[in-house]
Amino acid sequence: MSGRADPFAAERPARLAALRSVLQSEGLDGIVVRSPALSRYLSGFVIRRGDELTSGYSGSLLVTAAANRLLADNRYIEQAAVEAPGWDLVQSDTPPQVLLPQLLAETGIARLGLEADALSHSTWLALAAAAPEVELVAIDAALAELRIRKSPAEIEAIGRACTLGDAAFAHLCATVRPGMTERAVAREIADFFESHGAEDLAFDSIVLVGARASMPHGVPDDTAVREGTVLLLDFGCQVDGYRSDMTRTVFVGEPTERARHQHDLVAGAQDAALEVTRVGASAAAPQRAAQAFLAEAGYPDAFRHGIGHGIGLETHEPPSLKHADTPLEAGMVFSMEPGLYLPGEIGIRIEDIVVLEETGPRFLTEAPRHGLVVGERQAA
Predict the structure, then answer these.
(1) CATH architecture observed for domain 12-147
(2) How far is it, in rounded angstroms, from Cα 234 to Cα 367?
């Protein structure tokens, strides 16, 4: 937290109580939390993006009905003491299959809930072999429910990240010019976020020129921005742990009529999806609405990915809006991102973050999305 007050300190006791309710509902004696996002959600302990690959098992939590412990190795023990007050710290300089069996035996745990998605198969097997008397139970679905609906404070944090993303986009519109490479634009995004107080990028920015934009998750290279093309910009930042995600496809110089029409169609597909995004609606309804809109316009196969994903402490988290028929609920925050991709010609995507309220979806991103032309003044 870099010395600043924890903006979610007041919420953490209720979050921990909700985790303990999973103990009862799943018939467990204890739960181990491994993922950095859920660990931060519950305890406040922060492992920055990328650090989870080198931090061993620091940040893992062991929660029972009577105790909550946080594992941290010697690099993180001081940080954990500051960021996670009220948690019993256990210095862990060994893999979980060495330390956890001892802790499980001390607390009499016979049935242990685990995030299967956050553990490698080999670690699961090693833990099972080291503690054969303990039944290991995957409880990912139950744990996902803890974070799928956002509190007002979480929504405000996501909103702050989105507002900073809006500012970054305005900066890009004033800065991008023909001759800049995709990599240079991506560096401009990172530099803006760093200099304006973001904790981190939410993910590696996607910057793609012209026909390269037909790759939904293409990687920026040394391709130069040039007039007469589109420029796809997909980026986000992290504020107080919570993330933003926005995509805009801009025109470099005046667009062709065909390109402008295609952009209008993507905006129309987003509007069609938002129209059916209501409390109680199927989570898959927006996907079907956007695909139907584009198919009717003559592009039945041009939209190839899911229209939305939940966002919060992770860039991609439940709910998924592609295939799931689970009902949408008030308090869910997710992206709405239809696209049109024609390999060898063009790629267009518009992405916004919305929070679903009883009255419908409300935009957290506010940057303009229609008819955006950049680079003309700089190129003149």
Answers:
(1) 3-Layer(aba) Sandwich (3.40)
(2) 13
**What are the tens digits of pLDDT across the range 95-110?**
777 888 889 988 899 9
Q: Cβ neighbours of residue 113 under 8 Å, at least 6 residues apart?
A: 22, 23, 26, 28, 30, 31, 32, 137, 138, 139, 142, 143
Q: How far apart are CA 113 and CA 88, in angstroms?
A: 19
Buried b (16+ CB within 10 A) or exposed e, 137-172: eebeebbbeebbbbeeebbebbbbbbbbbbebbebb
Return d(Cα 246, Cα 252) in angstroms, integer.
Answer: 19
| 3-class secondary structure, 7 | coil
- pLDDT tens string 263-313: 999 999 999 999 999 999 999 999 999 999 999 999 999 998 999 999 999
Instruction: Tell me the domain boundaries of the chain.
Output: 12-147, 152-379
Residue 334, Cα to own-chain centre: how many angstroms? 9
pLDDT by residue (tens digit) across 234-267?
A: 999 999 999 999 999 999 999 999 999 999 999 9
Q: What contacts 112, CB < 8 A, 6 or more positions away?
A: 28, 29, 30, 31, 32, 104, 134, 135, 136, 137
Q: Which residue has the tokens 């600043």?
A: 4
Other CB atoms within a 10 A radius of the CB of residue 367 amount to: 19
What mean pLDDT comes out for the span 340-354?
Answer: 97
Neighbours of 267 (CB within 10 A): 17
Q: What phi, psi does 262 have (nearest 5°)?
A: -65, -40
CA 284 to chain centre: 19
User: Same topology for domains 12-147 and 152-379, yes or no?
Assistant: no
Say if CB 11 and CB 153 are below 8 A apart: yes
DSSP string, 210-241: GGGGGSTTPPP-SPBP-TTEEEEEEE-EEETT
Task: Round to whole Å and give the CA distance between 330 and 279.
Answer: 6
> Beta-carbon neighbour count of residue 91 at 10 Å?
14
DSSP per residue over 265-314, as a string?
A: HHHHHHHHHHHT--TTSBTTHHHHHHHHHHHHTT-TTS--S-S-EE-SSS
Q: Which CATH number fits domain 152-379: 3.20.20.80, 3.90.230.10, 3.30.950.10, 3.40.50.300?
A: 3.90.230.10
